[in-house]
Give the backbone structure.
Amino acid sequence: AKQGNMPRAPPGAPEGGQWGSVKYGGDKTACLCVVLCLLTGIFSGCGFCAYLCPQDEKDAYKVKGQIYDVHGKKIARASEVEFHPY
């Protein structure tokens, strides 16, 4: 998605922020974890390394050091995630 297609701010979030994206551990990351576990052995723990480099991405809104999803739910502090502005 591009910022021109996004609303000004998600519901309940303060105005004046910036749209972008954040990575998170979702379905793609879980699949990668399973594949790594199968390739390296389930007890090696290597599969869980997939969560160090999450593969899933979603739209996010950054304002005043907080990250919100498109529904206005606060999902993280800006210092806790890697935010990529659009």
In short: Strands lie at 18-24, 56-63, 66-68, 74-77, 83-85.
